[in-house]
Write a structure and sequence with these properties.
269 residues, alpha+beta, Trypsin Inhibitor V, Chain A, 3 domains, three-stranded mixed β-sheet
């Protein structure tokens, strides 16, 4: 035990000082040890995850900076197009749908960028899927004038294939028939054909005056002129020479054509 001397009222007294022993580190309980171990393990795991994420980010940045060729996707179904794009590190994004005359529905009809171009990895190829051939509904135009029929077809986006004119009693320019029929579906390259009247173009004549003329050979003359003799009636007319035309239909001066019939009465004995 250390000692020291000091003077107390002129008397030197030997004093003893008590010195505390060195402090001992506190002992860790099992619970305290488990808490510290968990904290240290969590910190180490956090640093490991950060390092892994940093490495992955750096690798992804390297991959993204790489240019890869764009594959040909047109005509393929969407799953196959996505798989082919993934093989070179690209993605596929559907932008919309379009009609196509030959590519079946749900297949790629267009892509951007096109085949052969280059694109950075992890970027998307924009694609449009086919809805199949466009089908148009034929509107009814029978009975309309050609001009009105054309406008109706244009509004329905149905092309006019051809117009055939024939002689008919209907007013000129009137649609007599149409093909395909109204309500049917057609493709844009089919169109509609119209049968149109150009009016009655048969030759017309002025009915001659037959009254008082001999009936002999008259029917043959009218037939040669293109007129149809429907009936010749013989009746007794006193005072009129036999074989003379006494009545006719249509009357003289009336306009006639080959579609009309002519009849006349002839006197007899």
């Amino acid at each position: 035990m250390p000692s020291s001397s000091r003077s107390c009222a002129g008397i030197e007294v030997l004093c003893y000082l008590e010195v505390a022993p060195p402090a001992q580190p506190p002992k860790l309980s099992p619970k305290r040890f488990a808490v510290l171990f968990f904290k240290n393990s969590l910190l180490a795991a956090s640093w490991l995850a950060f390092a892994t994420l940093a490495a992955a980010t750096a690798m992804r940045a390297v991959l993204i900076s790489q240019e890869v060729p764009v594959p040909a996707l047109e005509g393929q179904a969407l799953p196959q197009a996505g798989s082919q794009a993934a093989r070179v590190g690209l993605l596929v994004r559907v932008e919309g749908r379009r009609h196509h005359p030959t590519i079946p529905p749900d297949r790629v009809v267009a892509q951007d960028p096109p085949y052969g171009a280059t694109l950075k990895a992890e970027r998307s190829i924009r694609v449009w899927l086919s809805t199949g051939p466009e089908r148009l509904t034929v509107p009814p135009v029978t009975g309309q004038k050609v001009r009105s029929a054309r406008l109706a077809l244009e509004q329905a986006m149905v092309p006019l294939a051809r117009v055939v004119e024939i002689d008919d009693e209907a007013e000129p320019g009137t649609v007599l028939e149409q093909q395909p029929a109204p309500g049917q579906a057609v493709s844009p390259d089919q169109g509609v054909s119209l049968l149109v009247s150009r009016g009655d173009q048969r030759p017309e004549y002025v009915m001659p005056d037959l009254i008082g003329r001999p009936a002999a050979g008259l029917a043959e003359q009218l037939d040669a002129a293109g007129l149809l003799v429907a009936a010749v009636v013989h009746r007794a007319y006193p005072g009129v020479a036999p074989g003379t035309v006494v009545r006719q239909q249509p009357p003289a001066g009336h306009r006639v054509n080959p579609a009309m019939s002519v009849s006349f009465e002839v006197s007899r004995d």
